[in-house]
Structures
1.
Amino acid sequence: MKERYARQIMLPEIGMKGQEKLGCARVLIVGVGGLGSPVALYLSAAGVGTLGIVDNDIVSLSNLQRQILYKERELGYSKSQAASLRINEISSKITVCEYNTRLNLENAFDIISEYDIVVDCSDNIATRLLIDDVCARQNKPFVYGAIDAYTGQVSVFDAQQNWRYIDLFPSATTASTNPNSGQGVIGTLPGIIGSIQATEVIKLITGLGTPLIARLFTIDIRSMESMILTYNS
């Protein structure tokens, strides 16, 4: 472990103790598409011990422009299975739990109960509201990310610190719950936002820095202007 994670361990804010925390952590990734791809890659590379993958989609040709987990030879494969194989190519020591299903009212409570942190890489409001509700009931943080053409945002929601998705988006319960799968996006944008989500997970696990709780990071890649909006939690 010292050799593999040497560049992280030498950071005094992480050290061997932080690396051990990463190895013991259990993180659930909901959706392994554009956002879930960099999240899964970076968390597995960082040494997170157990990753859960929730996705019932299959790999299609149009995914390859931005979903960097997958290869041409995996077209038609289950995303959860292909993601699991890729993660174990990075590290055979990681335990990967595949859920070839959509997160829904029937399974969300049981699945989320097995994990410490949830990463929302979904593409629709209904799933985010479900994650927000179950995580609040189970007192678990979840790392939110979303993209829209050229812009993206990230926050960390934690009901124990009075900061939930519905606090940031109170009108979400009346908004459309259908994913906009036909919307265009530059392939690098989910890479940027997913990498920030993975960073927030590492921060939560190790205690590094200040997580984006009661704060919203936003970026517009056309101008590379970014900002952090702070809210009263």
Note: DSSP finds eight helices and eight strands in the chain.
2.
Amino acid sequence: MSWLPKKNVVVPVDFSAQSLEAIQTALELVESSANVHIVHVVVPLTAITVGEAWAAEDVASRLSAARDYLATYLKQHSIGEITSVVREGDPGLQIAEYAQSIKADLVVMPSHGRHGVQRLLLGSVAERVLRHVECPILILRRND
């Protein structure tokens, strides 16, 4: 199996500068931008969240807003002809599930480089994807 080019590359995005770098890296690894799949995962509201408690925000409206924002984000950065998906749930699990559903050859994602208490409290999406996805993963280190 050849390392390049890849047929299906998944790139999780959280709209950070590191996400944009991951998209650019993925575009370099494929023949066509149509082979890049951008995934954004909306974290579910909990029962203690004000929006959920008062039913001010439902899942459908949050997903719709995320889709609109993702489309705007991609357009602002002149990224076209790609597949973009918005899902709701645990980010690590949703990214891995999506990658498996499209038979991804590679997942390209940034590492936010959290350590210590911050990592303990926030967890590591990259680590969770690594544990659950079946294809190779390219994790990009922070530049700062």
Note: The mean pLDDT is 83.
3.
Amino acid sequence: MKTVPFACLLALCACGDSTSAGDDAGTKPGDCPAPSAETTFFVTDEGNGSNGGNFGGLDGADNFCLAAAMRAGLGPKGWRAYLSTGSVHAKDRIGDGPWKNSRGESVGDNTSIHAAGIAKSLILSECQRPITYSASDPGGRGAHDIMTGTGPQGELQRQFDQNGLPNGDPATCAEWTSNASTEVAWVGHSDWDGPDDGWNTAHMTQGCSPSALAATGANGRLYCFATD
């Protein structure tokens, strides 16, 4: 994944970068209502296109969040992608909160979102859209699988071993650097309906390629939290 030039971000990505912004329908003028200036949490309206699960690592994923925020007219705010790796837990990347969604509604702080979750009615894109599953478009607008690599407590989730226990390799698309069909990632559901179907943890993907992600309802969307 390419690094988004900061000058481009300041211009709300007017210069364009199809690989960093994803290859789906995108954020169009008039199609993305201005979010609340208080927005500090959103799920990305766009996916990662042909890059699948490859964001260029955590830094690239943070840039993906930053690009989405800047396109929507939000400031830098220290955006962080809610992702775990073998060396860092998602909960430790995003600060303490509390956070507000793109309508300015409170979604909770770091403690509450990992104890009670985030109400699905509050999980909105930067364009104030709920992201709900659609069987007719599971790899596009209906992609409700959100990349996390994370368990319910905000910590790294591993692949299942031969005994059916999550003791295998990290389920993180090779630390968010791979779009191979042989890698997998753990995802949450933006329209979750617990207790075994959570906003940050629901199931593994079939792979990290675009087609493998789409097979379970994913397209490389991320949760983004502001740390500033």
Note: DSSP finds six helices and eight strands in the chain.
